[in-house]
Amino acid sequence: MINLSDIQAAQERLSGLIIRTPLVFSQTLSRMYGVRVFLKLENLQTTGSFKLRGSLNKIKLLPNASRTAGVVAASAGNHAQGVAYAASLAGIPATVVMPQWASLSKQLATEGYGGLVLRHGQDLTEALAKAQELADTGLTFIHPYDDPEIIAGQGTLGLEIMADLPEVETILIPVGGGGLAAGVALALKSIKPSVRIIGVQARLTPSAQAARETGRPVPVPSSATLADGINVTCLGQQTFPILQEYLDDLVLVSESEIADAVLLLLEKKKILCEGAGAVPAAALTQVLKDRNLGRRLVLLISGGNIDIPLLERVVQRGLINSHRLLTVRVILPDSPGSLGRLTTLLGQAGANILHLDHDRLGLDLPLKDTRVYLALETKGPQHCQEIRETLADAGYLVDNRV
């Protein structure tokens, strides 16, 4: 077990090598949820994630004999980049095993930091097993979360939060393998025992919930999730007892809630974060929205490494979920002027046409008709309903797809 002095020593060790990321106040979120909301922007960290803290702390503590052969790690992406960058600072080679589904941008970034990427396995557990095999050849294994020196490095985030906001009452933290949550919780609780620590996990991979229910880390099925950075099927053996002692609560969030949170942070705060980094915001806006969270709340935005093609899909899904993007299929006569009348009507209703497509070949369509697919930008749920009513009043047959 580590203690506060280990985390404080890690902070001194990392001084000048990492970014002391900002803790910013969000007036928008505070007004929306009736509590003073602060965001710890670790998405602005070098490599785009908190993972650099633990990796660098671990590698700086390696004896000289272990540096010659180099290090090996397993990661879905953020730990990979942290290890690759930390190893490059130390001048030692790094090999990283990534699951087959790992983000392409994270693979490329890891290689850009000088790491050798090997793709293996369908989940992080399989990638970890492969990395441990490579460690038997003489490489030093850098675990992504289940290591005291990794936990201590991540815990430096807690020291920064406490220094910047000693009045903090509650903090929402993403939970995957538990390294980040364990380190931050230990740091905060050691200084201010009254602070509430609430972990947030993706509903599709509830490994921390399973561990809390059974009293020990147990594997759960692996599922693809937008929060790939916390897609860990089994909580760490060393992180579990720390979380059992210091975690006050744990909540789960759905994929649609995560997508909505990514869009919320991007649109309202101009903060680009990945799915794992958005889960605290997802919890605040849904499962915890009616909970008493005190007067000062911190959301730990743990990372910002998201593929741009994925971001495009996430934004579109978020707009659909918030009813600001309405998709409809309209049947109309396949005759001159009919499409113009439809688009004119939609314009008068205040709908902005983002996409339009014709289907004249549907076997269920009469030969004289055509089906038009429309993606419409709207002002919200009420506007969507008004558009549907406008089309119905005009006699159009509408197949709503929201």
Offer a quick outline of the entry.
About 45% of the residues lie in helices and about 20% in strands. The protein is α/β, with parallel strands linked by helices.
Strand order of the largest sheet: 1-2-10-7-8-9
Class computed from helices, strands and strand pairing: alpha/beta
Tally of separate helices: 16
- What's the number of extended β-strand segments? 14
Largest sheet properties: 6 strands, mixed
The backbone outline, from C-alpha atoms, is elongated
Can you describe what's shown?
44% of the residues lie in helices and 20% in strands. The protein is an alpha/beta fold and 402 residues long. The strands form three sheets. The protein has a six-stranded mixed sheet, with helices on both faces. It has a four-stranded parallel sheet with strand order 5-4-3-6, with helices on both faces. Helix 3 packs across helix 8 (148-164), helix 8 (148-164) packs across helix 9 and helix 9 packs across helix 11 (239-246). It is elongated and about 80 Å long.
